[in-house]
Design a protein that fits this description.
By secondary structure, this protein is of the alpha+beta class. 27% of the residues lie in helices and 29% in strands. The protein has 8 helices and 18 strands.
Length: 380
C-alpha cells in the first residue's frame, strides 16, 4: 500500500508541475508577442516599410531650435517714400490756365507713404538682404532688430531683375544666418518662414516646399526660379528668410498668389543659390553685371513645335533679334531655336536667360541652334 501511495503522490506532484508549465507558457508567449509593438512605438524601427515615429513634442522642439538659431538675425524694415501727386483730377482748361497765367493751376503736393517688410543679416558687420520692391525709391530705411535696436540703413545695391537688395547698418557683432544650397531641397520638405506680416514682428509659420522652379508669367522680375511653399506668407513677410530644418536659409520670401491679397496657401521665395550670386556682386560692385545676347526669347509651345516640326519643346525660340546686337552679329535669326550654350542644354526660355546672364560681358560663347524658322514659318 505504501508503494502505491508513493507512486500516486509522485504522479500528483508531476501533474501539478506540468499544468503549471502549460499555464505559464501562454502568458510568456503573450508578453513576447506584444514586446515588438511596444518597442516599435518607443524606438526607431529597422523595417524599411515604416518611417521612424517622431513624437509631436520632438518636432516642436526642432522648430523651436531653428527659430532660436535664425530668429535673432531677422529684422523688420520700414521704408519711407515721398511721392509728388496733384490734388485734383484733370480739368479741361489746364492747358489754357498754364499758358496764360504762367503757372500750373494745380501745384504738386508731397505725399508720404510707409512700407513695411522683412530682411535678415548675412554677415556680422551689418549687411542685410531684403527685396528690391521694398527699399526701391525709399528716402529713409529704418531697421528694427529683435534685440530692440532701431537703426538707419543705407542701400548698398539694388537689382530689380531678381527683386533683391542689399542694405547695410553701422555696427558689428550682429547675429547672421547661414545660407544653404537651394538645389538640394526637395518637394515635401519642411520649411519655416520668419518675418513681420502686417507689422506683427518676428512671426514664424511652418509649411512644406510645394514646388520648385516656378515661373509666374509676369514681366517683373525678369529672372524667375521661385520656390513655392504653403508656409503662411502675408504682406510684410517680403524679404524674410525661408529656412530648412538644418536652420539654413534656402530662400527669400518675395511674392504671394492670392485673390484677396492675404494668405491663400501659395507663396513664393527666391532660391538661395540665386541670392548668393546676386548679393556677392551687389556687395562688390553695387550692381549686377550680366551677359547680353540681344534677343527676345520665347518658350517653345506646342503650336511652334508642330509648325517647325520639332521633336520636343526643349530650347528657347528667338522671337526677335535686336539690330547690331551680339546675336545679330553672330547671325541669329527670328524663329531660330537655341538648344545649347557652351555645351549646356537649354531647357526653356527662363533657363536661357539665366545661362546668358552668367556669361561675362565681352567673352565668347558657343550657341547651338535649330534653324527651323528659316525653312518654314509658324502657323498664323
Amino acid at each position: 500500500m505504501r508503494k502505491y501511495a508513493w507512486i500516486g503522490g509522485t504522479g500528483f506532484v508531476l501533474g501539478l508541475l506540468v499544468a503549471g508549465l502549460i499555464l505559464i507558457q501562454p502568458e510568456n508567449q503573450s508578453r513576447q508577442s506584444s514586446q515588438p509593438i511596444i518597442s516599435g512605438y518607443n524606438s526607431v524601427s529597422s523595417s524599411p516599410l515604416y518611417a521612424s515615429p517622431l513624437p509631436e513634442a520632438a518636432l516642436s522642439f526642432d522648430f523651436a531650435r531653428i527659430v532660436e538659431k535664425v530668429g535673432p538675425a531677422v529684422v523688420k524694415i520700414v521704408c519711407e517714400r515721398v511721392e509728388k501727386v496733384r490734388g485734383f483730377e484733370e480739368w479741361p482748361f489746364d492747358e489754357f490756365w498754364d499758358r496764360f497765367f504762367g503757372i500750373p493751376r494745380r501745384q504738386p503736393r508731397e505725399f508720404r507713404s510707409t512700407v513695411q517688410g522683412s530682411g535678415f543679416f548675412v554677415s556680422s558687420d551689418g549687411y542685410i538682404v531684403t527685396n528690391n520692391h521694398l527699399v526701391e525709391d525709399a528716402n529713409k530705411i529704418t531697421v528694427y532688430t529683435s534685440q530692440g535696436d532701431e537703426i538707419t540703413a543705407k542701400p548698398v545695391g539694388l537689382d530689380s531683375k531678381t527683386d533683391l537688395a542689399l542694405i547695410k547698418v553701422e555696427g558689428k557683432n550682429y547675429p547672421y544666418v547661414e545660407m544653404g544650397d537651394s538645389s538640394q531641397i526637395k518637394v515635401g520638405e519642411w520649411v519655416l518662414a520668419i518675418g513681420n506680416p502686417w507689422g506683427l514682428e518676428h512671426t514664424v509659420t511652418a509649411g512644406i516646399v510645394s514646388a520648385k522652379g516656378r515661373q509666374l508669367g509676369v514681366a517683373e522680375p525678369v529672372y524667375q526660379d521661385f520656390i513655392q511653399t504653403d508656409a503662411a506668407i502675408n504682406r510684410g513677410n517680403s524679404g524674410g528668410p525661408l529656412v530648412n530644418l538644418k536652420g539654413e536659409v534656402i530662400g527669400i520670401t518675395s511674392n504671394i498668389f492670392s485673390p484677396t491679397g492675404a494668405y491663400a496657401g501659395i507663396g513664393f521665395a527666391i532660391p538661395s543659390n540665386l541670392v548668393k550670386k546676386v548679393i556677392a556682386q551687389l556687395k562688390e560692385k553695387g550692381r549686377v553685371v550680366r551677359g547680353y545676347l540681344g534677343i527676345v526669347p520665347k518658350a517653345v509651345d506646342e503650336e511652334y513645335r508642330q509648325a517647325f516640326k520639332l521633336k520636343s519643346k526643349e530650347g528657347a525660340l528667338v522671337e526677335s533679334v535686336e539690330p547690331d546686337s551680339p546675336a545679330d552679329k553672330a547671325g541669329l535669326k527670328q524663329y531660330d531655336v537655341i538648344i545649347e550654350i557652351n555645351g549646356q542644354k537649354v531647357k526653356d526660355e527662363m533657363d536661357l536667360r539665366f545661362k546668358i546672364a552668367e556669361i561675362a560681358p565681352g567673352s565668347k560663347a558657343t550657341i547651338k541652334v535649330i534653324a527651323a524658322g528659316r525653312r518654314s514659318s509658324p502657323a498664323a
